[in-house]
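Hi V.,

You were right to ask for the full record rather than a summary. Here it is.
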Amino acid sequence: MRRELATPAEMVAFGRRFGTTLVAGDLILLTGELGAGKTTFTQGVADGLGIERPVTSPTFVTVKCYSLAQGGELYHVDLYRVHDPDYLQDQGILEELDRGAIVIVEWAEHGRVLEEYERLAITIMVQESGRMMEFEGTPDWQERLRWLR
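Predicted structure:
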């Protein structure tokens, strides 16, 4: 499935709508070139989850945790500077996922996710007209993404 977005504001609005569909234990893997809009999308998702504090790129700290108003956490991970494929496991991020945290991973291609995790991979491609988002999910995500059509 694909979705075209013309402006950063559309990316945030789409992320906001997408964020309202997330549930405990969701794993979102983001890929795309530098400046494609991974953090912009995540800011919209955080807004959709009710997070009121500013969401910024965790490039230098690699992980930021945000508390959700309804309970639980959102872990925002950035693997841009990470060169260890087992980082998510070694840092306990997958353990938090097992406990019900929502996890969004930017630069997901730099890490390894164990096959037992249901996940949605989103690739953001830069185009002259804006951004194209491509969605590829494990089987449980297929039904959940019907609203995209």
